[in-house]
């Protein structure tokens, strides 16, 4: 029987304390989030959809962390997620508080400059937890092997340097639209030194991210069973996050990507904590194979249909111009007809191709856990297996 990568510890007093701390952080983040949105509404009006969803996505980190701590109180990633959510919540609140205290209604709230300083760097530990340390420590909270310790120490050093640099750099809230709010502890005389530090930090951060990706690949190459499914979930969430960053960067150059930029960012922000929580808690763990299959199919289908649509519109438009001397909206109608005609055959062909490749990788005659679960469900539905037998065999397949 497969075992979990982080064994569930016996219930004792420490577990309840960990759960209390975890859910207290969830409650604290909710208070900070509501207060931040209220302050934002007071000085800029109704918050945008992306801001609201960002708050919900960070709440997902807190909830997943609390759930992990409730079942496995010593799991490092549970604590990491709770701390990351609290860090983000404090940074959001500090930034909105500083705007209210220093710009919207100066003098009405105390400690405005302290809040402004705190808001500049408080989110950096959370970003480090999610972007740098999570790939190194997932899924059991330990490094792949002692040989990876230099990478972990290097990541810690980069984070400390980034935090210290941000604490004392002569920066402002210009990105948030408030250039008048400056770092009260910014050392203007050393502005050139901080610029050089930023230039050095950027490639170092990329190197650390590369080590995290290498650690994930290393684990995937040596993993099987439950561990491999857990890593697939994390890789799926991380891939969506990476794709979101790429699309966001390319949208500045290719305006055609702008409409999908925000929805993809919303999806990616939520996908990573959900993927990590599913992997560690092992709820519906084996669904990842089906999800990856469908993602590949519909991603390829979207790309193909986008190409067909663009080509068909251009073709029919040129045809109408050549025959009538003017453009026509009939080109759009004809294109939609073409898409409706080719949609199903293309989808079926792509599905067959993906299924064939997946089965080929498993080898001839190999069966996945999903195949076994489907067979069990059919036997249970026919009454061949009792409820107790079905539950026992399902637990055996899932390694519970």
Short overview:
76% of the residues lie in helices and 2% in strands.
Which features characterize this protein?
400 residues, mainly alpha, Rhopdopsin 7-helix transmembrane proteins, two-stranded antiparallel sheet, 13 helices, disordered N terminus
The helical percent reads over 70%
Q: Radius of gyration over alpha carbons?
A: 26 Å
Instruction: Walk across the major sheet and give the strand order.
Output: 1-2
Cα shape: globular
Count of domain modules: 3
* Tally of contiguous helical segments: 13
> What is the name of the CATH class of the largest domain?
Mainly Alpha
CATH topology of the largest domain: Rhopdopsin 7-helix transmembrane proteins
Order of helices and strands: HHHHHHEEHHHHHHH
The class by helix and strand makeup works out as: mainly alpha
Mean pLDDT: 76
Low-confidence stretches: 1-14, 360-366
Amino-to-carboxy terminus distance:
8 Å
Strand content: under 5%
| Main pleated-sheet profile | 2 strands, antiparallel
The CATH architecture of the largest domain comes to Up-down Bundle
* Count of distinct strands: 2
